[in-house]
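Aggregate trends can hide what the representation actually does to any particular protein. In the encoding step, the backbone of a single protein was reduced to a row of integers, each denoting a local shape. The record that follows shows the chain in one-letter code together with its fold in token form.

***
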Amino acid sequence: MTNANLLTDNPVLYEARFPDEARLAGRWAEDCLRRYGAGPRVLDIGCGTGRDAAYLHGAGRTVVGSDLSEAMLEHARVHHPGPEYFRADLRGFDLAERSFDAVVCLDSALLYCHTNDELDGFLSSCRRSLAPGGLLVAEMRNGAFFLGRTELLDSPSVNGFTWQGITYRSTTTLHVDRAAQLLRRTRVWTADDGSPPVEQRSAWRLIFPQELRHVLAVHGFEVLALHDGPGPRTEPPWREGDSPAATADADRLHVVAALRHPI
């Protein structure tokens, strides 16, 4: 068992497992930024391999990408140049005050804030980094989906991909830790190159829509949009011209909030 992660520790494998040739996530984020009038300076926090940050850079924005994984950042600098990349922990980061017009946080990265203190640390950091009126755009799993629904919990999911002639397979089991309000994941990786199986464990915070509205308001944000889709990881996925839904109970949650009361 390990807390390491085969994909985030090996960015080329991550991009092989989760291809995004159409840059759907970056396009969705750019659409949100344009729809709600964000300025040009963007922080992509939890940027991963840098694909979305590079897309936003290509759209004409001045972009900084940050991540906790140095392996991801090294990959981003080589394969997705344009933004400035640096290492930072989203649970508490210190940048020049009022240096961004928007903070983008995609693919459930925000949910690595497991505790209230960590979530407060993230939002306090965003508040310091944003100019007045700046936007927070985030996309994540939706805690409300797991109220009475068990289809993602009932049986393991099995996925696979092939890279450089080696086939990798993952068996993933999810369970809800209600007391901690976490969605815990156990994933076992096997490969057909003879290497032994690797078991990995991780977790996401389960945040509910009304809870998210409250904590954002406490930190001086006004929610402009909060909905379950369409988005880059919904089914069907977001397409150009789509408007936000009026619901917030499917398995993904999307939020756009403006900083109204900076400190």
